[in-house]
Design brief:
single chain; 311 residues; alpha/beta; TIM Barrel; 13 helices; 44% helix; 15% strand; binds 3-hydroxy-3-methylglutaryl-coenzyme A; binds magnesium ion; hydroxymethylglutaryl-CoA lyase activity
């Protein structure tokens, strides 16, 4: 089954698919968990922006990540729009069954190219994570649910240091061979520079078609946009981003948010790529969540946009 956003991606080589991960990656690291209503309002705002893919939460242990508690309840309260694909992160069968029970039609499984990170994040080895995912993928197939894969620590791991590009390619290919329709490569701690990102894509693209690969860049050292530019040069056309640059990972201390959706939009639109985004609605969503969190928006473009509007 081809979704609306896949149709756009494949029928128009100038189209870049953006997966908005703010409600999940963005909020999973907040010191004080947001209320369900605040999480829902963020997603309702994002639904007005033209974004076609929104990761709304994760069905993980609330003891491990309290910020994502009740993501299934949240999902069930959202209006469904046939042009918007929601997804939920599910590390195992239990999480998948929760997502399935509320009618979610896309989930994401997540592992890493680093053993230590996988242990800290999902309490198992990389091989064990694949055992859990094979149960998820088998059940997903019988219910016609799409499964996306994530590989974390594609350049550096907070516990092991540098990770080999070949290991990243191996884990990504394994996820695709198992049945994931797309794999997002997570630069989890934001230390990468374009030269190192190039080597990761070189290794992956030797085995995997670019259409199956997404870039997920955290912006700790301000390198995310440079890394996305590098990725675009190598043919990658799918990127994850977070409204107002929210985000981080509870198991990667010091890592900051994802590239902001606003800055990604600016880069892509100025380079002539289509995203389907309504700029005013995007800026409204980013202003609303920044107000809820009482936080200065780190997006350069959002700040410039509001300064120009107020001048
Ligand atoms: P575990 O302790 O090994 O699991 O945790 P378990 O199977 O032994 O079960 C222990 C307890 O957890 C039991 O409850 C289970 O029922 C419960 P108890 O009997 O103690 O009351 N449990 C669950 N509850 C809800 N949903 C579930 C679930 N599974 C078990 N799905 C587990 C394993 C994976 C659950 C745990 O390690 C976990 O929840 N980890 C959180 C991982 C996470 O959310 N990390 C952040 C997202 S990944 C990320 O940010 C990176 C990414 O953005 C890309 C990048 O930037 O690199 C994607
Ligand atoms: Mg992330």
């Amino acid at each position: 089954m081809t979704t609306f956003s896949e149709h756009l991606t494949h029928s128009n080589s100038n189209f870049v698919k953006i997966v908005e991960v703010g409600p999940r990656d963005g909020l999973q690291n907040e010191k004080t968990p947001l209320t369900l209503d605040d999480r829902k309002n963020l997603i309702l705002d994002l639904m007005k922006t033209g974004l076609k893919n929104i990761e709304v939460g994760s069905c993980v242990s609330a003891k491990w990540v309290p910020q994502m508690a009740d993501s299934d309840v949240l999902f069930s309260q959202l209006p469904q729009d046939p042009n918007i694909q929601f997804s939920i992160l599910t590390p195992n069968l239990k999480g998948f069954e929760s997502a399935l029970a509320v009618g979610c039609t896309e989930v994401a499984v997540f592992t890493a190219a680093s053993e230590s990170f996988t242990r800290k994040n999902i309490n198992c080895t990389i091989d064990e994570s694949f055992d859990k995912f094979s149960d998820v993928l088998a059940l997903a197939k019988t219910h016609n649910i799409k499964v996306r894969g994530y590989v974390s620590c594609i350049v550096d791991c907070p516990y092991e240091g540098a990770i080999s590009p070949e290991k990243v390619a191996y884990v990504a290919k394994r996820l695709l061979d198992m049945g994931c329709y797309e794999v997002s490569l997570g630069e989890t701690i934001g230390t990468a520079t374009p030269d190192r990102v190039k080597k990761v894509w070189d290794a992956c693209l030797a085995q995997i078609h670019a259409e199956k690969l997404a870039g997920h860049f955290h912006n700790t050292y301000g390198m995310a946009i440079a890394n996305i530019y590098q990725s675009l040069q190598q043919g990658i056309r799918i990127f994850d981003s977070s409204i107002a640059g929210l985000g981080g990972c509870p198991y990667a201390k010091g890592a900051s948010g994802n590239v902001s959706t606003e800055d990604l939009y600016y880069l892509l639109s100025k380079m002539g790529f289509e995203t389907g985004i309504d700029l005013d609605a995007l800026m409204q969503a980013s202003q609303n969540i920044s107000q809820v969190l009482q936080r200065q928006n780190p997006s350069n473009y959002a700040n410039a946009y509001w300064q120009t509007r107020c001048a």
